Amino acid sequence: MKTEGLESPPHVCPTLWRHAQERLRKCARGRPGLADFVFGFLLAPTWGAGLKALQLAVSMLRVVSWNINGIRSPVQGVGYEEPSNCTAMAMGRILDKLDADIVCLQETKVTRDVLTEPLAIIEGCNSYFSFSRNRSGYSGVATFCKDSATPVAAEEGLSGLFATQNGDVGCYGNMDDFTQEELRALDSEGRALLTQHKICTWEGKEKTLTLINVYCPHADPGKPERLAFKMRFYRLLQIRAEALLAAGSHVIILGDLNTAHRPIDHWDAVNLECFEEDPGRKWMDDLLSNLGCQAGSHTGPFIDSYRYFHPKQKGAFTCWSTVSGARHLNYGSRLDYVLGDRTLVMDTFQASFLLPEVMGSDHCPVGAVLSVSSVPAKQCPPLCTRFLPEFAGTQLKILRFLVRLEQDPVFRQSALQLSNQTPVQMRQNKARVRSTRSRPSQAGSSRGQKNLMSYFQPSSSRPQASPNLELPSLGTLVTPKTSEEDVMASVVEGRAKASEAKNEKEVRTSFWKSLLGGPLPMPLCGGHREPCVMRTVKKPGPNLGRHFYMCARPQGPPTDPSSRCSFFLWSRPN
Predict the structure, then answer these.
(1) Residues 6+ apart with CB under 8 A from 492
(2) Which residues of this protein are annotated with the site description Interaction with DNA substrate (predicted)?
């Protein structure tokens, strides 16, 4: 909706109208239909409708979630052409590009020992990190909040084992089904981070909103224990979220859930065995309300916000395989969600969106817009990174461990005397020290050092020829005559040796030519007659490490002729 040139309604001040236009154009970036929605209210004929619309325009809360696949790596494709090798600048640009009040990141792949201050502390934001305690460069989540959306509480983990009892969120629910070791294992991978905010609705009511930033485990088909770990994590997440709801807080679960819920959320669901029977999908069925079902069906406490606004949108994927280039043909799945409790979604959610145009990861950002305003806390919770000792300037340094020793009075007096000496006295002291040094014994020099010439013998010492030495006669030096057969044999032998040397040289030459001649040309795929690409088997088994050829085109639907064909060829026979 174009608002330029429109006169202000009679119930709205012209100056206020111009400010509203500027504010809405800025707020509507990446927020589908927001400008049309608000200006439709502004053009209403009553003052009450215009006032509500202006309040709505100013009080939008935008939240975004993104599996960034490594926060320290240089992120490309965030809308800036110039390259940047500065991680801090890249992080600031990411936040500016996402343009959200709260940004939740997953798979940060950093631990506390490698987290740098420029990355953790961004101007205008306060950040919170949860690290993996078991492995370096693995998992991890982070939440960046604008200063206008500073949380009142923040907590790492779902179980409460890492809570400090100061500025924590609380409300843990009944966790009797878990042992302490199991809870610690579930929270030690840095997969959950909670921030609690105060929000105000357009009616002026103040409420509590808790955001649960999660990076749920991936179930490796070859590791059944990871599937059990994933389902226990799901169970713990649901217990904590329902406990927060029971305590009167609104709850948003956002992040990478690592499960495609419905067949519409997966590119190849029809070819997957027992798609609906997957334990992760059954858990989501229990957690979410299916708004498309008839009355009397199961009603979960949460709503998938994207399907609430786009129930039949196909191809709405958030994750693609980077190895196969599947993103080019949108051959992926929807693993990232913004889930809100039923009341919150129905009353305050204005939009839910995907941002597939944002590159830099194998996932794309997802988000939602709420018609509420954030009431910032006066002070950040203790979990904020700016309070970490290494960033707050309170970390102990090595000089703190060095203690000055009390000097002995005699030593202090002698040092004072030495410092008061004149240059002449100091030279005299040095001369006395040199004179008292022990000198090498003169007796040892009586042996004398050998001269270089002593190693050379005079010419008279050379052995002379004996006068009685008999020289051989001339007749004995004459070469004896050789027979014709011996000559022919020597010629044949010489030719054989030359032939062998030539053959050996040819073998060596052919070997080096085959070795240095470069790789063999790639075979052509059967579907497109184009050069293939070589891959390596990484799955454990008898073929581990073997190379094979396959079509170089990106993966896509089998019915798409521009996608990868089914060509396969081993690079070497068994």
Answers:
(1) none
(2) 363
